[in-house]
Write a structure and sequence with these properties.
Helices cover 74% and strands 0% of the residues. It is mostly helical. The two termini are 14 Å apart.
C-alpha cells in the first residue's frame, strides 16, 4: 500500500474510527489519541509486512 493510498483509506475510515473510540471513551482528547495510536500502529504494520489488505480489515 502506498502512502497516498493509506491517506485515502484514513480519510474514508476516519469518522468510523472516531465513532468507535467515542463509544468506548467519553473524553474527546482520549478518542483522538486512540485513533491516532491506531492509525500509527496500522501504518507501521503495513510498512513492515507485505499485505494486500487495507485499513478496513484492521
Amino acid at each position: 500500500m502506498t502512502k497516498s493510498a493509506f491517506i485515502k483509506e484514513v480519510h474514508d475510515a476516519e469518522a468510523m474510527l472516531y465513532h468507535v473510540a467515542k463509544s468506548i471513551l467519553k473524553n474527546d482528547a482520549d478518542c483522538c489519541d486512540a485513533v491516532q495510536e491506531t492509525l500509527a500502529s496500522v501504518y507501521k504494520g503495513i510498512l513492515h509486512k507485505t499485505t494486500k489488505y487495507g485499513l478496513p480489515t484492521y
